[in-house]
Amino acid sequence: MNFSEVFKQSNQLCKVSPDGKYLATCVQYRLVVRDVSSLQILQLYTCLDQISHMEWSSDSLFILCAMYKRGLVQVWSLEQPDWHCKIDEGSIGLVSSRWSPDGRHILNTTEFHGRPENSQTPELSLTASTPSDPHLLHVFSQISFLPSC
Which one of 10, 18, 87, 102 has the largest count of C-beta atoms within 10 Å of its C-beta? Predict the structure, then answer.
């Protein structure tokens, strides 16, 4: 039985793409994408901070990297390595970032650090922004649940 060399990873972030062709691993602020059969590095991306969460799109064309401490999400394209997207939630507190089932939308859950003015009913705010190429990705950049206090 043959084994590959050991690859570094951070936060147990190592995932095979949905189509089974790629292996993505995170090492602090770097995202490494390898071919599953040869384990050769295909892409190496550098994020702005240490990666907390990584997720493949359903079609294996994009990878989402969330940096919860900084409120940032970066998205990388395997087809177009020069293309990337950055979503900055700022100080409202990013707590979760996920792909929608179609692999073309990102749902970010944020947390407001303060008491809402109307605390009687929960609220949902949704902001959508579309990149210049509509075939690439639609980003829902703020999905915030305000629980009643």
Answer: 87
Strands 14-16 and 53-56: unpaired
Structure-block tokens of residue 27: 């090492």
Listed by start position, the domains of the chain span 14-146
Cα–Cα distance, 98 to 52 (Å, whole number): 12
CA distance 47 to 74: 7
pTM metric for this prediction = 0.70
Q: What is the pLDDT of residue 40?
A: 93
Distance between CA 107 and CA 144 in Å, rounded? 10
Cα 50 to Cα 6: distance, rounded to the nearest angstrom: 21
* CATH architecture, domain 14-146: 7 Propeller (2.130)
Distances (CA, A) of 79 to 20, 59, 82, 130, 139: 16, 11, 9, 19, 18
Q: Please report where in the chains the tokens 């993505």 appear, as a residue.
A: 24
How far is residue 83 CA from its own chain's centroid?
14
